[in-house]
Amino acid sequence: MAEPIRDPQKLQSQVDEFQNLQRQLQMVSMQRQQVSMQVEEMKMANEELKNASGKIYKAVGNLLIETSAAAAKKDLSEKIETFEVRAGSLGKQEDKLRAKSEELRSMLEKALATSQRGAAEASG
Fold first, then answer.
1. Are 14 and 104 in contact (CB under 8 A)?
2. Is the overall model pTM greater than 0.90, yes or no?
């Protein structure tokens, strides 16, 4: 078990690190959610593409370019795969940040409890 933090400067440094981890966790979580939403949108587009008849267009910058259904399906499948890998990577990063954050939170709570006990014993 780790020794409780007694040095105020080290404690402040740990609090700052915890706050930084919380910000990082929030950013990574939002990114993962956005990528996951994009994957779902692409999957829906892929389903619609199966039922499509007639001309198919894909967006290239500010232009819509006519394409074949096969090319559109291939392109969409590749994008889905890429985005799923990205979502998985962000999920792993989120898990690591969450675990580190919880570990640091626990350490800070123990330091606070030790500090409060010490203050209570000194006054009592």
1. yes
2. no
